[in-house]
Amino acid sequence: MKRILLLVFSILVSILSFSQTCSSLRYQDTIFHSVTVTTSQFGVATPYGVLAQPQNLYLDFYEPTGDTLTKRPLIVFQFGGGFTIGWRSEPDIPGFCNYFAKCGYAVASIDYRIGLNPLDTNSTIRAYYRGVQDERSAIRYLCSRAGQLRIDTSILILTGTSAGCFCAFANSFTTNANRPASSFGSLLEPTDLGCYDCSGNNYLGYHIPHIKAIVNQWGAVMDTSFIQPGENIAVISFHGDQDALVPYIYGYPFSLPVFPPVYGSVPIHERLTNLGILNVLHPLVGFGHEPELLAPKLNDTIYNYTRPFLFQLLKPTTSAISGDTMLCLGSVAHYSVLNTVGSKYCWNLTGNGSIISTTGNSIAVQWNDTGHVAVSVKELNYIIAEGDTKTFDTYIVAQPHSSFTYATNELQVSFINTSSSNVNYLWSFGDGDSSSTFSPMKDYGSGGTYTVHLLADNGYCNATFSTSFTIDSCPLAAITYQLTNHNAFFYSPTTNTTSYYWNFGDGDSAAVNSANVFHQYLQDGTYTVTLKVFNHLGCEFMATLTFTIGSVPTIVTHLQHTILLTTMADQFKITTSTTAQLRIELMDATGLKVAETSCATNCEMSTANLPTGLYLLRISDGEDMLIRKFFR
Predict the structure, then answer these.
(1) Identical fold at 37-314 and 404-471?
(2) Per CATH, the architecture of 404-471 is what?
(3) How does DSSP classify residue 221?
(4) Which tens digits make up the pLDDT trace of 135-154?
C-alpha cells in the first residue's frame, strides 16, 4: 500500500512540475497599462559660463505601475540639441520612456549641462564632455539605488537623440585615457573639468557598471578607433541618410568647421561589424535630422525594431537539449539542458509517455509506444524574459541493421537506403527536418556540413547509422544604392558569399570582403556597376546596376500647395499649384537672412553671389511655412 501511495505522490509532483507556466510577453509588448514617473535630483555641477552658479541636475524615472519584479533592465535617455538647447521631457522623449516602461523596463530621462561658445572649437568639445560627465553621474546615482529602484545593474542600455547619443557612445567605448585635451582647460575656458566620473556626485566610488547596449538615434563618434575588440556592447542605429546636422557618414556637425569632424552611423556600423560586435543599422532613407518630429510614424519604426533587438539580449539562451535519441520500447529516456541560476524550466511531451521525474532543468520519461516522440522545454529567466522553445526528437524502436549511401548535386542530396531486416525508417537530416521515406531525396536550404542519421527499426529494437558531408550552392546577389551628390553607397544583399569584386563603371574597381562599399564619382553621367560574388568553392554570380548622377527637380507637397523646386548652379526656380502670394526668404547656416522676395506661381532667386555653404530656404503664404535645406 505504501508503494502505491508513493507512486501516486510521485506522479502528482511530476504533473505539478510539468504544468508550470513559462510564458511571458514582457519586453516583447506593452503588457503594462500605466506608468509611474518620479522626479529626483541626481547631482550638482558647474555649467558653462564664467559667472555660472552650480546647477542642480534632475531626472525623471519611469516604471510600470504595479510591477513587482525586483530586478529590471534600465534604459537611460539623454536628449539632443547640439549641446545648446533641450530638456529631459521635450517631445518625443516622454512617449519613448512611457512605451518602454509599459514593456517592462525601468527608464530614466536625464537633464545635463548645456551651453557653449559657437566660435570656439574647444568650447564645443568641452560642452560634449560635460554631457558625458552628467550622464555618468546619473548612472551612478541610479545604480547606487538599485535595490530601492529595483534595477538590474548588469543590464544598462543608453539611448537618446543626436547629442545624447554622442554621450552614449563616449560612455560606452572611451576611458579617461581618451579624454579630449580641451577638457583639461583651454585658452578661453581654462578650468579643468576633471575626469569622466569627477563631477555631479560620488556614488559607486566614481565608476559606472558595464553598458549592455546602445539605441543610437542619429548620433556619432569623434573617432571609431575608440571602439576596441572585445567590447561586447550591442548597438542598434537609426539615422536619416539626408541628415545635414549630424553626418550620416563623416563630416562637420551643422556643416560648420567650428565643430570637430565626426563619424556617423555608417562608419560606426562598419567598425562594429568588422570587430564582430552585435549591431544593426536601419537607414531612414530620405529623412534628415530629428526626423520623428516631422514624421511621427518613424517612432513606430524605431520602437518596432528596437524592441526585438533588445529582447534578444535579455532572453535566456537555453542550451540544446541533451538526451536519448533512440531507445527500445519501455526504456526510460533522460533529457536535460544546462541549468541557469534563477531560471525556471517548463517541460512538455509530444507522444505517449509518462514523466517519471523532473528536477527543473532535467526530466526522465518512459515512452509507452514506438514511433516519433519528442520533449520540449521553455526557459523563463530571473528578469521574466521568455526563451525560445527547444525541442528534442526521439524514436522508439527495437535491434536492426542500418546503413545508407548518398549522392549530392549542389544542395540536393539523394539517399540510398542499404539497411536490411527492417520495417520502419527515420531519417534526421541535420537541419531539423526528418523523413520516414525508404530512400528520400532532400533539398537543403543552405550549404554547410550536415550529419545525417538513419534509425532503422526491425520491430524489436533499433540501430542507427550516421555520416557527415559538406554541400554548398552558388551565391546570389542584387545591387541597391544610396546617392548623395556624387557619393554613392552600394548595398548588396547576398547569399553564400565569401568574396566580392566591384566594378564601378568609371574605370575604378575594388576586390573586398564586404557586401557594402562607398565610391565617389568625379562627374555626372550614367554608370553601370557590376558586382561579382564567389563562394568558398569558387562558384560565381554577377549582378549589374545602371544609374545616372545628375541634378533633377524635387517636388514637395506641403498642405494645400504643390511646390516644384529646381536648384541650379547659381539660382533656383519655384513653381506652385496655386496663385497665392508667396514670401521667399534665404538664410545662411547662422540664421542670417541673405536674400528675400515675394511672388506668385513662378519665382526665381539668384544665388550666384553667395559663398559656398549650407543655406535654409523658407517659403510661406501667410498661414503655413515650408523650410528646405540645400548646399550651394
Answers:
(1) no
(2) Sandwich (2.60)
(3) B
(4) 999 999 999 999 999 999 99
